[in-house]
Design a protein that fits this description.
The protein has about 375 residues and is of the alpha/beta class. It is built from 14 helices and seven strands. Strand 6 (about 145-150) and strand 7 form a beta hairpin. It is elongated.
Length: about 375
Amino acid sequence: MNKPIFVLNGPNLNLLGQREPAIYGTTTLADIRKRCVTKAKALGFDVEFRQTNFEGELVESVHQARTDACGIIINPAGYTFTSIALLDALKMFDPPKIELHISNVHARESIYHNSLISRVVTAIMIGFGADGYELAIRRWQAWSSGTELSGRRTRRIAMNYKLDFTPVIDGLPSLLLGCLGTFLLAICGMLLAIIIGIGGVALRDSALKPARWLVIAFVELIRNTPFLVQIFFIYFALPLTGIRLDPTPTAIIALGINGGAYAIEIIRGGVQSIPKGQMEAGLALGLHKAQVFRLIILKPALRAIYPSLTSQFVLLTLTTSIASAISAYELTSVSQRIESESFRSFEVYFTVTIFYFVISWLMMRIFALFSARYFKYPVK
């Protein structure tokens, strides 16, 4: 008889369905147990489903699994962040083990961000709700049918792998909506970046010294820090000051700020390429500095820097993929969901690579048409 998979649950999970439904949902632990047993049987496995509110009993179950189980799926709940004893017990369990959390712990308070046991498990399922248990069992089935596992090292048997694009075809409507989400994020980010870029150039060349230093500090700060850190700061750190944003507005603001820092320097270079004689001629005609900038300097400067600016915007479009780290709706986040449900990593990400290539090509064509329409010098 094959050994079962131990599905272990930590403290307070017996209260699922009653405990903070907005975070953990309304599904009870008994319902999850039934779904796990049904899914495992359908895939040819047995499961041993356990829950305890005591650390010692959870550690004992891990010890028992060393001889009685072929693997562990564990939701340690509060012990995830405190139990060194559980960490040590899991270290001694060689077969694959999956850490599971119903909620997205990284989108919650900082006390839930540091898992002690993540460093010793084979995989992690986070934020899929009660469905995470079934997904973990399906991952197990994928491992057993096409992968050899030894401790924390995984080697896929290439000869057993067969391409199957069915999940990609079934998920094509979602992927196309993800492409639309990527376009919308990119366009909104670009518009914000242009506003920041033009405003930043105006302040950078103003007579107000504090304004000039502020723009210089902004540009240096944004250009010398990773975009992932910037978007995490807005999404995770600002709520501590009372400013809480949804993933999509967060992504747009982060993209606009990041693109704006680069746009300031690009536009500023174009402005400085305009001969001073044109500025002096405008002032001599009685125009204010703002009018000179808007009517005389801006368009020739944009024509000069248009190739560099549009290349930066294409790069900004590809950068939208990082917004998946905060669950913003775009192509990469959709592809991650499809991959987590189907485990067809090659097929999903191969398709997504093509989609991103097409998106970039379309963006370049749109920019080229815009350039031909608005920035082409008249020819007699």
